[in-house]
Amino acid sequence: MVITNRRARHEYDIGETFDAGLVLVGTEVKSLRAGRGSLQDAFGRIENGEAWLYHMHIPPYEQGSRWNTDPRRKRKLLLHRWEINRLRGALDQKGLTLVPLSVYFTRGHAKVELGLGKGKKLYDKREAIAKRDAQLEERRALTGRG
Predict the structure, then answer these.
(1) pTM of the shown model
(2) Does residue 128 form part of some domain?
(3) Domain assignment present for 136
(4) What is the pLDDT of residues 12-37, one digit of tens each?
(5) What per-residue confidence (pLDDT) applies to 127?
(6) Is residue 142 part of a domain?
(7) Does some domain include residue 138?
(8) What residues make up the domain containing 73?
(9) What is the Cα–Cα distance from 134 to 130, expressed in whole angstroms?
(10) Pairing mode, strands 3-4 and 97-106
């Protein structure tokens, strides 16, 4: 994993996940390999039969020159046609959001893990925090570290 979106699972209930290729230019790849980038405000959309990733921040490569691109440009996602059609149907009908969860490299190719997420309400977040704390207390009690 190069970049992870830690807040995504806190802000959204993630259902189905997809792996998509990511179209990048050379200096963006070098910047990502250096571990720089952010998925904080990123989201995906389906437009004209193509999948796009918006607001993913990849800072300019330090040794790059005029070939550095805009850090927040929209980037094309590489998915099969049936995956795009399935995502389009889910995003239109159910009111879900396409949330990027992580960016990683496989055999030299940049990939992004996308999840279909439904936004959590404030009380859902509080429930999740309470459940996590209860599990932590239970583990402490079992190990005798209480």
Answers:
(1) 0.79
(2) no
(3) no
(4) 888 889 999 999 888 888 888 888 88
(5) 85
(6) no
(7) no
(8) 3-121
(9) 6
(10) antiparallel
- The ranges of the chain with pLDDT < 50 are none
What pLDDT, on the 0 to 100 scale, is given for residue 118?
86
CB 113 within 8 A of CB 119: no
Q: How far is 110 from 88, CA to CA, in rounded Å?
A: 23
pLDDT digits (tens, 9 = 90+) for 93-102: 777 889 999 9
pLDDT at 146: 55
Burial label, 38 (beta-carbon count in 10 A; 0-12, 13-18, 19+):
middle
| SS3 category, 130 | helix
SS3 71: coil
- Encoded amino acid at 43, one letter: F
> According to the model, what pLDDT value does residue 64 have?
67
Distance CA(16)–CA(87), nearest Å, equals: 10
Q: What is the CATH number of the domain that holds 106?
A: 2.40.280.10
Rounded Cα–Cα distance for residues 81 and 84 (Å): 5
Say how many domains are in the chain: 1
Q: Strand 50-54 to strand 43-47: parallel, antiparallel, or no bridges (unpaired)?
A: antiparallel
